[in-house]
Write a structure and sequence with these properties.
Blueprint: E1 5-14, E2 17-20, E3 32-40, E4 47-56, H1 62-72, E5 82-88
């Protein structure tokens, strides 16, 4: 396998959980869209993941988003072999 490994895409939060879909049209009923980029510079290096919220359903209550995140977590979780950074543009 060649390094660095880089991958980009999108995760969408729906009322029934996370869905990865990289191409438009994005799913109906989504409440958030998060862009992600992963990079692993070398075989023995930790994977670095950046998640950035790029879209939020207009008018959605913060409490509703909090409840969905509490129920389903984040689309990619940190582990001993990866670091995850969250950013909110919106």
């Amino acid at each position: 396998m060649e390094y660095p490994k880089i991958e980009r895409g999108y995760f969408h939060l729906l009322s029934d959980g996370w869905l990865r879909q990289d191409q438009t049209p994005f799913p109906e009923g989504r409440v958030e869209t998060w862009a992600y980029e992963t990079e692993q510079p070398a075989e023995d290096a930790k994977e670095r993941i950046c998640l950035s919220r790029t879209w939020k359903k207009p008018g959605i209550a913060a409490e509703q988003l909090d409840a969905l995140h509490a129920r389903f977590g984040e689309p990619i979780l940190p582990t001993t072999s990866r670091n995850v950074t969250l950013e909110c543009e919106i």
